[in-house]
Amino acid sequence: VVEIIHVPRSVKYNIRVNTPFENRALTRNIIQQHVLRHLSFAGVRPTQLALPNIAHLTTLITMTELFHGVEESDARWIATYARLKVVEANQTVTQRGEIGEVIFFVLEGLLTAESRHTIGTKSRQLQLLSPGTMIGWIAMLMNDVYEATVSTKTVCLLLEINYQVLEKILAQCPKLIDIIILIKVNRRQSLV
């Protein structure tokens, strides 16, 4: 434990562990288990997964690459009509090759994205996804398939934006189309 921060009605522990990159997700889970076990032994119970309120969701939505340029009222509309989804650990969120029908915005938890860009026995590329990540938005907007299989490593809280919600957003906020085109062009140029 590096430091203990006392916050009104709670305590936050800052724990630093230096582990190889490939073991970080596993190490985090093990440390969390031990911390929770010790707290339970001491009679301290953690709070349940807290669902964010609309104001907090609105702020988080406007901080994403996709919705950065939208008006606050449009972001509030998204926060109101998109669906909050709790996904247990070790569950598949998107499957590589399936049609992209939903965008997921990671609010809490840790996920992995697994993709195979070459044919054959070459090892898979694993990428850790954390809060703030948008999953599947390019596939959904381009009417394409998901490029990776995304699975939860821990219990996750996701904001699910389906096509009906996105269609209403695009009708309300036409400048979002320009933002999407700009992001796509910038990504294509970075690949060249």
Task: Provide structural commentary.
The chain has 192 residues and is of the alpha+beta class. It contains six helices and ten strands. The chain has helices spanning 24-41, 54-62, 72-81, 137-141, 163-172, 175-191, and strands at 3-7, 10-14, 83-87, 92-94, 102-108, 111-115, 125-129, 134-135, 149-152, 156-162. Strands 3-10-5-8 form a four-stranded antiparallel β-sheet. It has a four-stranded antiparallel β-sheet with strand order 4-9-6-7, with no helix packed on it. Strands 1-2 form a two-stranded antiparallel ribbon. Strand 1 and strand 2 form a beta hairpin. The model has no long low-confidence stretch (mean pLDDT 78).
Strand-helix topology:
Layout: E1 3-7, E2 10-14, H1 24-41, H2 54-62, H3 72-81, E3 83-87, E4 92-94, E5 102-108, E6 111-115, E7 125-129, E8 134-135, H4 137-141, E9 149-152, E10 156-162, H5 163-172, H6 175-191
Antiparallel strand pairs: 1-2, 3-10, 4-9, 5-8, 5-10, 6-7, 6-9
Helix pairs in contact: 2-3, 3-5
Task: Summarize it.
With 192 residues, the protein is α+β, with helices and mostly antiparallel strands. The chain has 6 helices and 10 strands; from the N terminus they run ββαααββββββαββαα. Strand 1 and strand 2 (10-14) form a beta hairpin.
DSSP helix fraction: 25-40%
Intertermini distance: 45 Å
Q: How many individual β-strands?
A: 10
Q: Largest sheet, if any?
A: 4 strands, antiparallel
The number of helical segments is 6
- The shape is globular
Secondary-structure content class: alpha+beta
Cross-sheet strand order for the largest sheet: 3-10-5-8
Computed Rg: 19 Å
Query: What is the succession of H and E elements?
Result: EEHHHEEEEEEHEEHH
What percent strand?
A: 25-35%
> Uncertain spans, ≥5 residues at pLDDT below 50?
none
Averaged pLDDT = 78
Give the oligomeric state of the chains in this entry, treating copies of one chain as homo and distinct chains as hetero.
Answer: single chain
